[in-house]
Amino acid sequence: MNRRENLKLLFAGSLGTGLVLTACSPEEKLADLSPKIAGTPGGRIPEEIKRDNDLLSDKFFTDHEMAMLTVLVDIVIPKDEVSGSASEAKVPDYIEFMMKDQPANQTAFRGGLMWVGLQATERFSKPFTEISASQQMEIIDEIAWPDKAAKEVEAGVKFFNLLRNMTVSGFYTTEIGFKDIGYVGNTPNVWDGPSKEVMDQYGLALDEKYLNVYLTPEGRGSIATWDEEGNLIS
Hints:
Layout (H helix, E strand, L loop, with lengths): L2 H10 L2 H4 L27 H12 L5 H14 L14 H11 L4 H19 L8 H9 L12 H18 L3 H7 L14 H6 L33
Helix pairs in contact: 5-8, 6-7, 6-8
């Protein structure tokens, strides 16, 4: 099982407890669904829209930090034959938002980016975004496996744990991530009743006089009609 499959399993197991549904009463007036900058659609109240707009209008990461972040999230979840990479799912934008939404993580995250950048400069005399992919992985491999990491890179390990958690959360809550794990949510399903083999096993059979009017997959959108005696016509 590869790294991406492990991430899928970890996230799929959290869907049952990690998704929280909220609702408002019919009497509550729904807010405008199109905030000036962005926001989550679906009946946001004015205070929520204002908060989203305030967070989205501010900027936390510098351009250089965002460039580093783009490289790092794609190391965690690279593009493969099934789906796009973390950056293609706009995970850096998600992390940018979360830094402002949860400011307690700002110092640790920015400090971690500085730590990675310093490693690149000291080892290869170039910024992290300008060294080769193999050189980048030389740094990341030392902090990506907590059980194997040396004591002197503990700060890097803690940062990469945070980065990895946020990358997975961001990726697997997007359309790309949903498709990657085959998650369809509350989607109507189709069930055509027990198979003929099961019916035969228990000596059961459909009423022959209705065989020509039973619902078929092709006719699921049609409305049933009945005669005056309550018999199904079609």
